[in-house]
From TrEMBL:
<keyword id="KW-0238">DNA-binding</keyword>
<dbReference type="InterPro" id="IPR036388">
    <property type="entry name" value="WH-like_DNA-bd_sf"/>
</dbReference>
<dbReference type="GO" id="GO:0003677">
    <property type="term" value="F:DNA binding"/>
</dbReference>
<dbReference type="Pfam" id="PF00392">
    <property type="entry name" value="GntR"/>
</dbReference>
<protein>
    <recommendedName>
        <fullName>Pyruvate dehydrogenase complex repressor</fullName>
    </recommendedName>
</protein>
<keyword id="KW-0805">Transcription regulation</keyword>
<keyword id="KW-0804">Transcription</keyword>
<dbReference type="InterPro" id="IPR000524">
    <property type="entry name" value="Tscrpt_reg_HTH_GntR"/>
</dbReference>
<feature type="domain" description="HTH gntR-type">
    <location>
        <begin position="17"/>
        <end position="85"/>
    </location>
</feature>
<dbReference type="Pfam" id="PF07729">
    <property type="entry name" value="FCD"/>
</dbReference>
<comment type="function">
    <text>Transcriptional repressor for the pyruvate dehydrogenase complex genes aceEF and lpd.</text>
</comment>
<dbReference type="InterPro" id="IPR008920">
    <property type="entry name" value="TF_FadR/GntR_C"/>
</dbReference>
<dbReference type="InterPro" id="IPR011711">
    <property type="entry name" value="GntR_C"/>
</dbReference>
<dbReference type="GO" id="GO:0003700">
    <property type="term" value="F:DNA-binding transcription factor activity"/>
</dbReference>
<dbReference type="InterPro" id="IPR036390">
    <property type="entry name" value="WH_DNA-bd_sf"/>
</dbReference>
<keyword id="KW-0678">Repressor</keyword>
Amino acid sequence: MPVSAIDDSAPGSSSSPRISEWVAQQLLDRISRGELVPGQRLPGERQLAEQLHVSRVSVRAALQTLKTQGFLTAVQGGGTRVVSSAGVMDGALTAMVRGKHDNLCDLVEIRMALEGWAARRAAQHATPEQIANIGRILAAMTQTSGDGNRAADDMDFHLSVAQASGSPVYLHLLATIREILGNMVELNHTEPYMENHEALMIEHHRAIYEAIASRDADGAVAAVTAHLGWVLARYHAMSVAPAAAPESESTDSASAEA
């Protein structure tokens, strides 16, 4: 039952702390249910106060509490958004991946397990609207050229599957490594070490979409595993590809031979 609006702005009010704690818990519940996701901007104080039937004073106190606890952060220009730990997590992961090729491959294998699980959940729980959204993004991937738009659509595809999984835990986990995942997706579209790699990428994503749309949970896992197994093979190919000689060295060598 909603809490009635109370004028808790009066000094010495004993209601204000209890109401602001209740408001903070309501917002935390929305985050845990995935209604509010990392990076998302919250409604304004007035709108939240109307939704929760409390005063703006209580909302303001609740927001300040959640900011202090690290769940929310202020947005430049006004407003509040849900915090993502992407900065710290991505920085550490990027350093590890850049420093050792095996770590990059480990990350792909971890993605295989997590994204396979998410695809299974999506096949089981996605709404018709979520499935249609995945299909729209796939259609956009087939129409964009290799100018960077396809990489963005690719990332959106994976995020839409995450949304369709219905798991706020997975959404938050994904948000912590979103930047490095974006870098990995971009690499897949800018380093064509295999013939027809763009066409294969589309077919892999189509297989994932079709399995989810047909509610084939096992097929969705198999499609994700096949796609990321292919990505893993490409990364291994990159590690053994001969590096091009620096221009200065080739010029010096040519001069010496002449």
